[in-house]
Amino acid sequence: MSSLIIGDDGLKRPSWAAQDPQMREYYDTEWGMPIREEQALFERISLEAFQSGLSWAIILRKRENFRAAFANFDPELIARFTDTDIDRLMNDAGIVRYNRKILATINNAKATLQLREKGGLVDFVWSFKPIETPQPQSLEEIPTQSPESVALSKALKKEGFSFVGPTTMFALMEAIGIVDTHLMGSHRRGSSGVWV
Protein backbone atom coordinates (compact mmCIF):
# COMPACT_ATOMS: atom_id res chain seq x y z
CA MET A 1 0.00 0.00 0.00
CA SER A 2 1.40 3.39 -0.99
CA SER A 3 1.38 6.17 1.57
CA LEU A 4 1.67 8.86 -1.09
CA ILE A 5 -1.02 11.45 -1.75
CA ILE A 6 -1.21 13.38 -5.01
CA GLY A 7 -1.55 17.08 -4.24
CA ASP A 8 -3.51 19.71 -6.17
CA ASP A 9 -0.21 20.51 -7.91
CA GLY A 10 0.02 16.92 -9.17
CA LEU A 11 3.02 16.09 -6.95
CA LYS A 12 3.19 13.01 -4.72
CA ARG A 13 3.90 13.50 -1.02
CA PRO A 14 3.55 11.34 2.09
CA SER A 15 0.39 11.86 4.12
CA TRP A 16 2.24 13.79 6.87
CA ALA A 17 3.30 16.41 4.32
CA ALA A 18 0.16 16.55 2.23
CA GLN A 19 -2.35 18.44 4.38
CA ASP A 20 -0.88 21.18 6.54
CA PRO A 21 0.57 24.03 4.38
CA GLN A 22 3.53 24.60 6.71
CA MET A 23 4.44 20.91 6.78
CA ARG A 24 4.08 20.75 3.00
CA GLU A 25 6.43 23.72 2.55
CA TYR A 26 8.92 22.15 4.96
CA TYR A 27 8.77 18.84 3.09
CA ASP A 28 9.11 20.49 -0.33
CA THR A 29 12.02 22.78 0.52
CA GLU A 30 13.90 21.61 3.63
CA TRP A 31 13.36 18.09 4.87
CA GLY A 32 16.06 15.74 3.70
CA MET A 33 18.32 18.46 2.31
CA PRO A 34 21.96 18.35 3.44
CA ILE A 35 22.99 20.60 6.32
CA ARG A 36 26.74 21.06 6.55
CA GLU A 37 27.03 24.19 8.67
CA GLU A 38 27.55 24.02 12.44
CA GLN A 39 24.91 26.50 13.64
CA ALA A 40 22.21 25.10 11.35
CA LEU A 41 23.05 21.54 12.40
CA PHE A 42 23.07 22.50 16.08
CA GLU A 43 19.61 24.03 15.57
CA ARG A 44 18.33 20.78 14.08
CA ILE A 45 19.79 18.67 16.89
CA SER A 46 18.19 21.02 19.41
CA LEU A 47 14.78 21.05 17.73
CA GLU A 48 14.80 17.26 17.32
CA ALA A 49 15.42 17.00 21.07
CA PHE A 50 12.51 19.34 21.80
CA GLN A 51 10.36 17.33 19.39
CA SER A 52 10.91 14.11 21.34
CA GLY A 53 7.47 12.97 22.48
CA LEU A 54 5.70 15.66 20.44
CA SER A 55 4.78 16.13 16.79
CA TRP A 56 7.15 17.89 14.41
CA ALA A 57 4.28 20.18 13.37
CA ILE A 58 4.25 21.67 16.89
CA ILE A 59 8.00 22.37 16.75
CA LEU A 60 7.80 23.78 13.23
CA ARG A 61 5.07 26.21 14.28
CA LYS A 62 7.23 27.39 17.17
CA ARG A 63 10.56 27.43 15.29
CA GLU A 64 10.84 31.22 14.97
CA ASN A 65 10.08 31.54 18.69
CA PHE A 66 12.78 28.97 19.44
CA ARG A 67 15.26 30.91 17.30
CA ALA A 68 14.49 34.14 19.13
CA ALA A 69 14.67 32.47 22.55
CA PHE A 70 17.88 30.57 21.84
CA ALA A 71 20.00 33.30 20.19
CA ASN A 72 19.35 31.88 16.71
CA PHE A 73 20.96 28.64 17.95
CA ASP A 74 24.44 30.13 18.08
CA PRO A 75 26.25 27.55 20.24
CA GLU A 76 28.81 30.10 21.47
CA LEU A 77 26.05 32.32 22.87
CA ILE A 78 23.95 29.47 24.27
CA ALA A 79 26.98 27.95 26.02
CA ARG A 80 27.10 31.12 28.13
CA PHE A 81 23.43 31.01 29.17
CA THR A 82 22.92 31.53 32.91
CA ASP A 83 20.20 30.72 35.43
CA THR A 84 18.57 34.00 34.40
CA ASP A 85 18.32 32.69 30.82
CA ILE A 86 16.90 29.39 32.05
CA ASP A 87 14.23 31.27 34.02
CA ARG A 88 13.47 33.38 30.93
CA LEU A 89 13.10 30.27 28.78
CA MET A 90 10.90 28.49 31.32
CA ASN A 91 8.56 31.50 31.21
CA ASP A 92 8.52 31.76 27.39
CA ALA A 93 5.13 30.49 26.21
CA GLY A 94 6.35 30.61 22.60
CA ILE A 95 8.59 27.55 23.03
CA VAL A 96 8.28 24.10 24.58
CA ARG A 97 8.97 24.77 28.24
CA TYR A 98 10.58 21.59 29.45
CA ASN A 99 13.42 22.14 31.89
CA ARG A 100 15.48 19.05 30.98
CA LYS A 101 15.35 19.88 27.27
CA ILE A 102 16.34 23.49 27.91
CA LEU A 103 19.27 22.36 30.05
CA ALA A 104 20.21 19.80 27.38
CA THR A 105 20.33 22.53 24.72
CA ILE A 106 22.73 24.60 26.84
CA ASN A 107 24.78 21.51 27.64
CA ASN A 108 24.85 20.48 23.95
CA ALA A 109 26.05 23.95 22.96
CA LYS A 110 29.04 23.49 25.26
CA ALA A 111 29.66 20.01 23.84
CA THR A 112 29.47 21.45 20.30
CA LEU A 113 32.22 23.92 21.13
CA GLN A 114 34.34 21.10 22.58
CA LEU A 115 33.85 19.03 19.41
CA ARG A 116 35.64 21.73 17.39
CA GLU A 117 38.86 20.27 18.77
CA LYS A 118 38.00 16.97 16.99
CA GLY A 119 37.03 18.41 13.62
CA GLY A 120 33.65 19.85 14.52
CA LEU A 121 30.02 18.83 14.84
CA VAL A 122 29.29 18.63 11.12
CA ASP A 123 32.07 16.20 10.20
CA PHE A 124 31.37 14.21 13.37
CA VAL A 125 27.67 13.72 12.58
CA TRP A 126 28.18 13.11 8.85
CA SER A 127 30.80 10.44 9.58
CA PHE A 128 27.86 8.19 10.51
CA LYS A 129 26.40 8.23 6.98
CA PRO A 130 25.54 4.63 6.06
CA ILE A 131 26.69 2.81 2.93
CA GLU A 132 23.11 2.64 1.66
CA THR A 133 19.79 4.29 2.39
CA PRO A 134 16.30 2.82 2.85
CA GLN A 135 14.04 2.59 -0.19
CA PRO A 136 10.59 2.61 1.42
CA GLN A 137 7.43 2.09 -0.61
CA SER A 138 5.19 2.98 2.37
CA LEU A 139 5.48 4.87 5.66
CA GLU A 140 5.36 1.53 7.49
CA GLU A 141 8.64 0.51 5.80
CA ILE A 142 10.56 3.51 7.17
CA PRO A 143 12.68 2.48 10.16
CA THR A 144 12.67 4.55 13.33
CA GLN A 145 16.35 3.92 13.99
CA SER A 146 19.35 2.24 12.38
CA PRO A 147 22.72 0.81 13.43
CA GLU A 148 24.22 4.16 12.41
CA SER A 149 21.75 6.21 14.48
CA VAL A 150 22.46 3.97 17.48
CA ALA A 151 26.21 4.49 16.96
CA LEU A 152 25.77 8.25 16.49
CA SER A 153 23.70 8.45 19.66
CA LYS A 154 26.35 6.61 21.67
CA ALA A 155 29.17 8.69 20.18
CA LEU A 156 27.43 12.01 20.90
CA LYS A 157 26.64 10.93 24.46
CA LYS A 158 30.32 10.05 24.90
CA GLU A 159 31.13 13.63 23.80
CA GLY A 160 28.78 15.00 26.47
CA PHE A 161 25.54 15.49 24.50
CA SER A 162 22.13 14.65 25.94
CA PHE A 163 18.64 14.08 24.49
CA VAL A 164 20.29 12.42 21.49
CA GLY A 165 18.74 8.95 21.60
CA PRO A 166 18.88 6.60 18.57
CA THR A 167 15.33 7.40 17.39
CA THR A 168 15.93 11.15 17.71
CA MET A 169 19.22 10.78 15.85
CA PHE A 170 17.56 8.78 13.06
CA ALA A 171 15.01 11.59 12.68
CA LEU A 172 17.95 14.02 12.49
CA MET A 173 19.66 11.87 9.85
CA GLU A 174 16.46 11.91 7.79
CA ALA A 175 15.98 15.65 8.21
CA ILE A 176 19.51 16.61 7.15
CA GLY A 177 19.93 14.17 4.26
CA ILE A 178 22.28 11.60 5.80
CA VAL A 179 19.66 9.04 4.86
CA ASP A 180 16.91 9.46 2.26
CA THR A 181 13.61 8.10 3.55
CA HIS A 182 11.47 9.91 1.01
CA LEU A 183 9.04 7.31 -0.25
CA MET A 184 9.80 5.79 -3.63
CA GLY A 185 7.61 7.75 -6.03
CA SER A 186 7.69 10.98 -4.01
CA HIS A 187 8.64 14.03 -6.01
CA ARG A 188 11.38 14.67 -3.44
CA ARG A 189 13.07 11.24 -3.62
CA GLY A 190 16.76 11.75 -4.44
CA SER A 191 16.49 15.54 -4.29
CA SER A 192 19.29 15.93 -1.73
CA GLY A 193 22.01 14.95 -4.16
CA VAL A 194 23.49 12.74 -1.43
CA TRP A 195 21.75 9.61 -2.70
CA VAL A 196 21.03 8.79 -6.35
Automatic annotation (TrEMBL):
GO terms, biological process: base-excision repair
Entry keyword set: Metal-binding, Zinc
InterPro entries: Adenine_glyco (IPR005019), DNA-3mA_glycosylase (IPR052891), DNA_glycosylase (IPR011257)
Keyword Nuclease in record: no
Species annotation: Corynebacterium crudilactis
Alphabetized PANTHER family for the sequence: DNA-3-METHYLADENINE GLYCOSYLASE 1, DNA-3-METHYLADENINE GLYCOSYLASE I
A Pfam family it matches: Adenine_glyco
Recorded coiled-coil stretches: none
Protein name in the entry: 3-methyladenine DNA glycosylase
GO molecular function, one term: DNA-3-methyladenine glycosylase activity
Sequence positions that bind Zn(2+): 182
Superkingdom of source: Bacteria
